[in-house]
Design a protein that fits this description.
Elements (H helix, E strand, L loop, with lengths): L6 E8 L3 H12 L4 E5 L5 H6 L1 H17 L15 H11 L6 H9 L3 E4 L1 E4 L4 E5 L5 E12 L3 E3 L15 H6 L6 E5 L3 H12 L3 E6 L11 H14 L2 E4 L3 E7 L2 E6 L4 E4 L1 E4 L3 E3 L33 E3 L10 H20 L15 H4 L3 E3 L5 E5 L2 H6 L4 E7 L4 H6 L6 E7 L4 E8 L7 H9 L4 H4 L12 H17 L5
Parallel strand pairs: 1-2, 1-6, 2-3, 6-16, 8-9, 8-14, 9-10
Antiparallel strand pairs: 4-5, 5-6, 7-15, 11-12, 12-13, 17-18, 18-21, 19-20, 20-21
Helix pairs in contact: 1-9, 3-4, 3-7, 7-8
Length: 489
C-alpha cells in the first residue's frame, strides 16, 4: 500500500452520479479547481440501475398499451413483447454498464476524477481508498459536497439474508424474466416494476402493507386508477399483507404472511423505501452521525457543520428523492459555492439564484405506469396539513376531445388546487395515458406562481389532452360565479 502526497482543490465532490456531476460542472464553470470521487460507475444509480434502465423496460410496455387503444392499430400489436429485444434495448440505454462516455465528459470540462471510496477525515479533508489499496488525501479550500444518494432500505424480515432478494438494482438489470415475481411495497418502484415485468411475462403478486392503497403520497385517485390498470393487466394486488418470514428452498422463495397465508415465487423484490448512503462517509469526524440524512439549508450547506464548508445535494439530504430535483439542487449548490468562493453576494431569498425553493413548492414527478401519473406541488392532504386554504378542482380527462383522439376508452382524472388567498395554483395531478407530457406546463404554472386569471390567456391547442387546463379553469370559474349568485327568493 502506498500513500500519495496530499492534493488540494477548491472543491471536492464525493459521488459522481448526475447530482455530483452537476455540482462539479458548475463549480468548475465558476473557475474553481474541482475533483470528483466515485467508487462505482460515473453516472450513478440513475444511469445504470434506476431512471434509464427502468424507463427502457417500461417504454415498450406503455407504447403497446397506447397502441392497443387505437382503432385500426390494435390488431397490429396483438402479440407479446419481444423480451430479448426489450432487454437488449435496456442494456443499450444503460450504456452496457460502462462509463467511458462519462469519463470523457469529465475530461472535457476539466474536472479531475479519483476512483475509490471517499470518506471525510476532518474539516475540509477527504481520504480516498482506491481499488489498488492506496490512500489519496484531499484538501478542499472552499467546499466538500456529498452527493452519494441513497440505497434500497430492506426490512428486518427473518430469513431475508438467505433469499438473495431483488432490490431496485436487480429489478432493473435482470437478464431474464422470472416466472413468478413477488413485489413487497406499493410505492413508485413497486408499481413501475409490476407494470414492466407483468408485461414481459412474469406472474406478479404485489404485497402491500396496510390499506392506504398504492402511491400513498399522491392523491388517492392516482393509486386507485393505477391499481385498476395493474389488475386488468393480471397483477394480483394484496393489501394489508405483511411478510413475516422468507426462505429460499429448491430454488424458489417461500413467504409466510402475517395472516398465516403462504406464497411462493421465483424472485422477490423489496421496494420498501430508501436509506441515505452515509454510513461509511466519516461523518463522525466532523461531528455528525454516521448513517443519518444530511439536513441542509436552501443553498445546500449542511446546517450542523460550522464554517459552512460542507454541502449535500440530491437524495442524501431527503428533500426530494428524484434525479431531476437533485440535479436542480446541484446546479444551485455549484453556483452558491462559486459565489461564496469569490466573495460575491449569495441570493438565497425565495426563488433566488442560490435558493432551492422548488424543493418545497414545485417538485414534479411522473410515474410510468398504465395509466401514467404526473404531479407537481401539493396534494389536497398536504395543503390541509400546511394550513393552506385551497379549492380542489377535479375534471374527467376522458371528456376532453384530445383524449378521444389519443385513445378509445380513455380513462383519466385531473386535479388542480387553487390557493384561495393567493389566486395561484398550488398543485396539479394528472392520471391517464400520455399525461407525463402535460407535467411541465403544470410545473411552470406552480413554480411561476401564475395568477389563475392569467392562465385564461394560455390557450391550449385543439385537439390535445392539454385542453384539460381549459376545462379545469372553466370548472373553477363556474363555481366562483355560482357563489356570487344571490339566494333564491
Amino acid at each position: 500500500m502506498t500513500n500519495e502526497a496530499p492534493r488540494t482543490y477548491d472543491v471536492v465532490v464525493i459521488g459522481a452520479g448526475p447530482v455530483g456531476e452537476n455540482v462539479a460542472d458548475r463549480a468548475r464553470a465558476a473557475g474553481l479547481s474541482t475533483v470528483i470521487v466515485e467508487r462505482e460507475l460515473l453516472g450513478g444509480e440513475c444511469s445504470y440501475w434506476a431512471c434509464e434502465p427502468s424507463k427502457a423496460l417500461l417504454r415498450p410496455v406503455l407504447a403497446r398499451a397506447d397502441a392497443r387503444r387505437v382503432p385500426g392499430l390494435r390488431q397490429a400489436v396483438a402479440g407479446p413483447l419481444d423480451v430479448e429485444a426489450v432487454l437488449a434495448h435496456r442494456d443499450k440505454m444503460s450504456a452496457y454498464w460502462n462509463d467511458e462516455n462519462q469519463v470523457d465528459w469529465l475530461n472535457a470540462v476539466s474536472v479531475d476524477l479519483i476512483r475509490g471510496h471517499g470518506r471525510l477525515d476532518g474539516p475540509r479533508q477527504v481520504a480516498v481508498q482506491t481499488p489498488d489499496g492506496d490512500t489519496v488525501r484531499l484538501t478542499a479550500r472552499h467546499a466538500v459536497a456529498i452527493c452519494t444518494g441513497t440505497s434500497a432500505a430492506l426490512p428486518d424480515t427473518p430469513g431475508l439474508d438467505t433469499v438473495r432478494p431483488w432490490t431496485s438494482r436487480e429489478a432493473t438489470s435482470a437478464d431474464h424474466v422470472p416466472g413468478r415475481l413477488a413485489i413487497v411495497g406499493g410505492g413508485v418502484v413497486a408499481v413501475e416494476m409490476a407494470t414492466a415485468w407483468q408485461a414481459l411475462g412474469a406472474q406478479v403478486t404485489m404485497l402491500v402493507r396496510g390499506d392506504a392503497g398504492l402511491l400513498p403520497r399522491m392523491e388517492p385517485f392516482a393509486g386507485e386508477l393505477v391499481a385498476d390498470g395493474l389488475r386488468e393487466a393480471g397483477v394480483d394486488i394484496r393489501f394489508g399483507a405483511s411478510v413475516t418470514y422468507v426462505a429460499r428452498e429448491d430454488g424458489e422463495v417461500r413467504m409466510t404472511l402475517a395472516d398465516g397465508a403462504e406464497l411462493a415465487a421465483d424472485e422477490i423484490l423489496f421496494a420498501t423505501g430508501r436509506a441515505p448512503r452515509t454510513a461509511d462517509l466519516g461523518l463522525e469526524t466532523v461531528g455528525l452521525t454516521a448513517g443519518d440524512w444530511l439536513t441542509v439549508d436552501d443553498t445546500g450547506r449542511v446546517t450542523a457543520v460550522a464554517d459552512g464548508w460542507l454541502y449535500a445535494a440530491g437524495d442524501v439530504n431527503q428533500r426530494a428523492l428524484l434525479t431531476h430535483q437533485g440535479k436542480y439542487q446541484a446546479r444551485i449548490v455549484g453556483a452558491a459555492i462559486g459565489a461564496r468562493a469569490k466573495g460575491e453576494p449569495v441570493d438565497d431569498a425565495r426563488w433566488g439564484a442560490h435558493a432551492t425553493t422548488a424543493d418545497g413548492a414545485a417538485v414534479p414527478q411522473v410515474v410510468f405506469t398504465d395509466p401514467e401519473v404526473a404531479s407537481v406541488g401539493l396534494t389536497a392532504r398536504e395543503a390541509e396539513r400546511a394550513g393552506r386554504r385551497v379549492e380542489v378542482v377535479d375534471y374527467d380527462i376522458a371528456r376532453v376531445a384530445g383524449a378521444h383522439q389519443y385513445a378509445e376508452g380513455y380513462r383519466g382524472q385531473a386535479r388542480m388546487l387553487v390557493d384561495v388567498d393567493r389566486g395561484t395554483v398550488a398543485g396539479v395531478t394528472f392520471v391517464g395515458p400520455g399525461v407525463g407530457e402535460l407535467l411541465h406546463s403544470a410545473t411552470v404554472t406552480v413554480a411561476g406562481e401564475v395568477p389563475v386569471e392569467r392562465l385564461w390567456h394560455a390557450v391550449p391547442a385543439f385537439p390535445t389532452i392539454s385542453e384539460v387546463w381549459l376545462r379545469l379553469l372553466e370548472t373553477y370559474r363556474g363555481r366562483q360565479q355560482d357563489q356570487m349568485l344571490p339566494p333564491e327568493a
